[in-house]
Amino acid sequence: MLDFIYYPVSAILWFWHQAFGYVLGKDSGFAWALAVVFLVFTLRLVLYKPFVKQVRTTRQMQELQPQIKELQKKYKNDRQQMTVEMQKLQKEHGFNPLMGCLPVLLQVPVFIGLFHVLRSFNRVGSAGFGGFGHSGGMTVEQNANTANYIFSPGDVQSFLAARLFGAPLSSYITQPVSQMEAFVHGDVGLPSKVAIAAVSIPLMIIAGIATHMNARASVERQSAEAAANPQAAMMNKLALYVFPLGVLVGGPFLPVAILLYWVSNNIWTYGQQHLVFGKIEKEETEKKQAALERRAQNAPKPGAKPVDVRKKQSAAKTDAVEDAVDLEKADAPQASQNGSKPSPGAKPGQGKKRSGNRGRANQKRRR
Question: What's the pTM?
Answer without folding.
Answer: 0.69
